[in-house]
Amino acid sequence: MFTLIYIIFATAALAARLFLNEPDTGFDPFIPGGGGLTPLNEIFSLADFDASARSYMSLRNYSYYRNGAAGEWSYRNNLEAFGRIRLRPRSLVDITHVEESLPTSILGYNFSAPFFIAPAGRAGYGNPDAEKGLLRAGEAANVLYIPSFGATLPLEDIVAFKSPGNEYTTFQQLYIDNNDTNVQSSLRRIENAGQKAIILTIDSPGDGARSRAERYGVGSADTGLTLLTWERFSKILNMTSLPIVLKGITTVEDARMAVSSGASAIYLSNHGGRQLDFSPSGFEVALEIHKQAPEIFDQIDVWADGGVRYGTDVLKLLALGVKAVGLARPFMYANCYGEDGVARAIDLLRTELINDSANLGLGDIKSINSSYLSLEYMNYNGWYTR
């Protein structure tokens, strides 16, 4: 009887819990009236960029970036999942050289940090220069940028923003349709543009039920049903010499299949909660793999995104064995300021990652493992909400 009463009250408490898109850190007074952007020197976290962009962008354009599928449970869950597991900081550790351990190899290419600018469409909704700021800031910081297949600008225009003589490496997201001739053409175009890898998005075989987006006329461009099977993936592998990363893995079963099917890496993601509501966050999928098949992290490089806003979020994913961590919406909001805004976002996250590592007692970020997490304690009742 007591257990039943507890469950009823716990359920009621969760139902009444207020969701906060970003935490209250005293930022609101710094949002200017009249639809302006908060000065960059008043931006102190990635969450600030969201609030500033919401004030600046038209409701229609902001809704395109912000929307999630159906009731947007997965969108909220992506943000909240990190708060269910605590960190286990170590003391009296020499952390003075942790910054030197940030550079990371992704698919054999060297970058300055273990996080990247994930693919997101229509950068022109936030800035008339569209994807220019994302590429130029990524290049300046040597942080990986993956242009979206649904970018505002053509792929050729985006890569043309690279500085002459600079060997900055970028990968390319790819959506496919049911026509193999079109797929082959897209692959050749990506190869000819000099992109070094293909991020094949597999988590959107159908359209997402995006109520918020549809209300403002900015729904998904993909309204058909796409043939996405392991057999077709095998066929696509033979159409290109570029490595292919499977983006949209959400179960340990599919992670195993990706390893055996020849993927160059796997990318844990639920499409920012925009396709299937109640799909798990990348962090939750990483937890599932860590629990049921930890050997996968040794067999293949694992990337993840979804709700990442803080250095501690990055550390929690890395602790499970994730190699590279993606962020999309925060950089799209930062791109409202152009290159300077994206550069500010990169610097804020990099600085957080360094200091959070130090405060975690981590002298080398590459040595992090699950012993830095309290995996036996998962707080589902009244967890920290941001």
Would you kindly provide a written description of the structure presented here, covering whatever features stand out?
With 386 residues, the chain is of the alpha/beta class. The chain has one domain: TIM Barrel (Alpha-Beta Barrel), CATH 3.20.20. Helices cover 38% and strands 11% of the residues. The protein is built from 15 helices and 11 strands. It has a 7-stranded parallel beta sheet with strand order 4-10-9-8-7-6-5.
What separation lies between the terminal Cα atoms? 34 Å
What helical percentage do the residues reach? 25-40%
- Anisotropy-based shape: globular
Instruction: Tell me what portion of residues adopts beta-strand conformation.
Output: 5-15%
- Tell me the CATH superfamily: Aldolase class I
Please identify the top-level CATH class. Answer: Alpha Beta
SSE pattern? HHHHEEEEHHEHEHHEHEHHEHEHHE
Low-confidence stretches: 1-16, 381-386
Any idea what the radius of gyration is?
Answer: 20 Å
Largest sheet: 7 strands, parallel
Structural class: alpha/beta
Mean pLDDT: 92
Question: Which strand order spans the largest sheet, edge to edge or round the barrel?
Answer: 4-10-9-8-7-6-5
CATH topology: TIM Barrel
- Count of individual domains: 1
Architecture per CATH nomenclature, i.e. the level-2 architecture: Alpha-Beta Barrel
How many helices? 15
Family: Belongs to the FMN-dependent alpha-hydroxy acid dehydrogenase family.
Binding site for glyoxylate: 64, 175, 210, 271, 274
Keywords: Flavoprotein, FMN, Oxidoreductase, Signal
Binding site for FMN: 119-121, 148, 173, 201, 247, 269, 305-309
